[in-house]
Amino acid sequence: MKKLLFLFIVFVTSLLASSVRPADAEFISDKNVLRATLKNGLRVVIVRNPLAPVVTTVVNYEVGSNEAPDGFPGMAHALEHMMFRGNPDLTADQLAHISAAMGGNFDANTQQTLTQYNFAVPADDLELALHVEALRMRGILGTDELWGKERGAIEQEVAQDLSNPEYLLYIKLLEAVFKGTPYEHDALGTRPSFDKTTGAMLQKFYHTWYAPNNAIYVIVGDVEPQATLAMVRRLFENIPSKKLPGRPAIHLQSVKPATLQMSSDLSYGLAVITFRLPGTDSRDNAAAQVLGDVLSSHRGDLYALVPAGKALSVEFALGSLPKASLAYAMGTFPKGGDGAALIKEMHAVIAEYVKHGFPSDLVEAEKRHEVADAEFEKNSVEGLAMSWSAALALEHHRSPDEDIEEIKRVTGADVNRVARKYLDLDHAIVAIMTPEDSGKATSSSSYGGHENFTPKDAATVPLPDWASAKLAKLPAVPESTVHPVVMTLTNGLQLIVQPETVSDTVNVYGRVRNHAGLETPEGQEGVDQVLGDLFSFGTESLDRVAFQKALDDIGANESAGTSFEVDVLTKYFDRGVQLLADNLLHPALPEKAFKTVRKQVVDSVAGLSESPDYLSQRALLAALFPKGDPALRQATTNSVSALTLDNVRAYQQHVFRPDLTTIVVVGNVTPDQAKAVIGKWFGDWTATGPKPETVPPPVSNNVASVIAVPDKSRVQDKAVLAETLGLNRYDPDYYPLQLGNLVLGGAFYATRLYRDLRKDSGLVYAVQSQFEVGKTRALYEVEFGCDPPNVSKARAIIERNLNDMQTKPVSVDELQQAKAQWLREIPLSESSVSSIASTLLSLATRDLPLDEQTRAAQRCSTMTAEEVQAAFAKWLHPADLVQSVQGPEPQ
């Protein structure tokens, strides 16, 4: 649940209803936003976005790790977890079942200054989501017994993050930059502090800070604002306000320069120069944001270290807090490379900028990107809700518009002034993280231990009247709002157009059907990686910098490869597609860049081949697929070193063909307009020779094995259980398997694996169960992380659950809940332009009808428990699971 949230920026116009009491409601000019402050101090903002019949609600409590008691840095995070353990009027099981029935899309996160709870639900279920949050604002069940169960889960979250080297680097940088202030630790918490935490402490923290007058409620989606506000009043206005204590003071000390040396299990090294920049409360915050953007520009001198071969990648990141921001330039270098040399290069670039200033055209370009990106934010209901939440609760602005207006006013002189003041290289924190080996993978035929475990049968959970009345019956199959127009150009390119008018943008997504394992000539493994990296070097007519400038001039975001995309304002649709087509069909592929990229890929492959992540994935694939399978082909240092530029050009000509390409256009454009523009720039693209094979052959079932990969960086084991299945995407059993998977792991405590592994035992923080089914082959996978002594216990619980799915029908309540979740996920999947496009591309490239979601829902609504049982009995073989564990030796 805990996330590191970096601010979203959005420019949005808004809807509002006509008559509300002027004493506590305010309307802004356009008709999309309604604001109100209730009598108890709860601030409410309702934003209408009709992209899909969906709504996202975010309760922003203005409390985080800053307010945690001394010695208990994770108190706010612990309370966030306990909010899902129920309250006096809603048990944890009831909350989980209601959430699952609404589609299962809910989450929470804790930061230094804020704790957020968000629901994404069909618009018809808005009142249920409001009711849940109103009850949670009234009280919690913070008992020692419940905390004792939840403590195991949150400690596994701690172990998960402490197993991530980049997180370890992040917390060291926080401590160094913000030493002596509440900002010096993030919200995660520690095992020792959680072991000392009690239910009474959690209750006290809740009753101190969780109050309507300490919260901002953001509601975004296809709603009628006045009616929504009336519901909020009815459910929230009689919750009493509270007298809030003072906030801890932030007294920033000067940053003391230091150099941190660390090691990791990563396949690459990290070189970081860290600064403290202005926070969101500062008048210089907008200039600092633009400064960060300019330093990240692909036309800038910092990024130029990559095409020069001096770094594998470079970025500049900015994470803002009210009183200050953590900012850093981060470069990656290959295993065996010189991190200190990369620090020196980045240092020189930043020093030059500080001394002579930034090019004014780069400043203006990044301002254009900020304005355009704000318009793109309207293309996601959930993203827009989080943008408004960030603007109101983190930046303390009246709307995201305010941030954009401040950015528009930033000048080159402002950026240079902020750079001179804050990019103080004499007081920077330097960190170098060097990769090291952890050892080789080992394997055996048995995992060597079986735990006795009998899971509870799923019990009927009686819902409160306000929820049961709504959820008692299975909803009807929802009508999709996506009605694409499908066309085929004369060259065989498939074009799919979905008009949307929620923003003044057009998003173009494409995919070339391909399979590197089938299409790569023998001995040229890695040619696809080299080609992929060369697309960023521009086109035959525009070199790398000129091509990026052309994108900057229109505020477009573009990427090319076998999956490609351009996001552009509507008025620049034609120009954006022209640039995309030029990059995809006429890449520059310069000789000098090829040699640089080939060396970078060689270095990356060398480091990757010895990293625990790669060794674990490689060993798992080798255990699942037969020798010689295309999934097992891999790049080596020798195969990449032997590549020539002619090899890369030949591969590009062989793989990139219009008759293997699908383009999806979603946005403020008509089908005829889209066809004209796509045809103009892609219509002359031709293919020669027979189509290459892009679909791998079926595979037989694997045999059981156990893989152990040592990893010195991890304190928690990462475990994967997997097996090959004999079915394909067109098999009728695909649907009952997916429905059964929702029973297993589709919605938190309401599903079997979360109930048994987290809610009742606290063995894991998260568990993921999924079927990956393609045209010819399928996999079943379960992934979880836990302490080494508990790997066998967790596996036993998973196996017993799979055996139960095979030997007895799921309960009536479980089946209905899974069906309700499936049905309500349809509108949720259409609540962003990217998810609409992703679904359409996935269906088209699998040769499925584009209304497949509706057809599947109709099939799901009539499915029986016996069909689910039969499908699991036929296809799954729990005794044949391959187990891969990365980390300390499992037990």
Tell me about this structure.
A hairpin with a 5-residue loop joins strand 16 (485-488) and strand 17 (494-499). Helix 25 (734-745) packs across helix 28 (812-829). The longest helix is centred in the N-terminal third of the chain and has 19 residues, at 144-162. This protein is an alpha+beta fold and 891 residues long. The chain is built from 31 helices and 26 strands. The model is unreliable at 1-29 (pLDDT under 50). The protein has a 7-stranded mixed sheet, sandwiched between helices. Strands 15-22-26-23-25-24 form a 6-stranded mixed sheet, with helices on both faces. It is globular, with a radius of gyration of 27 Å.
Q: Could you say which structural class the secondary elements and strand pairing correspond to?
A: alpha+beta
Largest sheet: 7 strands, mixed
Tally the beta strands: 26
Amount of helix: 40-55%
What topology, given as strand order, has the largest sheet?
1-2-3-9-4-8-7
Number of distinct helices: 31
Strand content: 15-25%
Average pLDDT metric: 93
Highlighted features:
seven-stranded mixed beta sheet; six-stranded mixed beta sheet
Brief summary:
The N terminus is likely disordered.
What's the layout of helices and strands?
Layout: E1 25-27, E2 33-37, E3 43-48, E4 54-61, H1 75-82, E5 86-87, E6 90-91, H2 92-101, E7 106-110, E8 115-122, H3 126-138, H4 144-162, H5 165-177, H6 191-196, H7 199-209, E9 215-221, H8 225-236, E10 258-264, E11 268-278, H9 285-296, E12 313-320, E13 324-334, H10 339-356, H11 360-376, H12 381-394, H13 400-409, H14 412-422, E14 429-435, E15 442-444, H15 465-471, E16 485-488, E17 494-499, E18 505-512, H16 516-519, H17 527-534, H18 544-554, E19 557-559, E20 563-569, H19 573-585, H20 591-608, H21 612-624, H22 637-641, H23 645-655, E21 661-667, H24 671-682, E22 705-709, E23 717-725, H25 734-745, H26 752-759, E24 767-773, E25 778-786, H27 791-807, H28 812-829, H29 833-845, H30 852-861, H31 865-875, E26 882-886
Helix pairs in contact: 1-7, 3-8, 9-11, 9-14, 11-13, 11-18, 17-20, 17-23, 19-24, 25-28, 25-31, 26-27, 27-31, 28-30
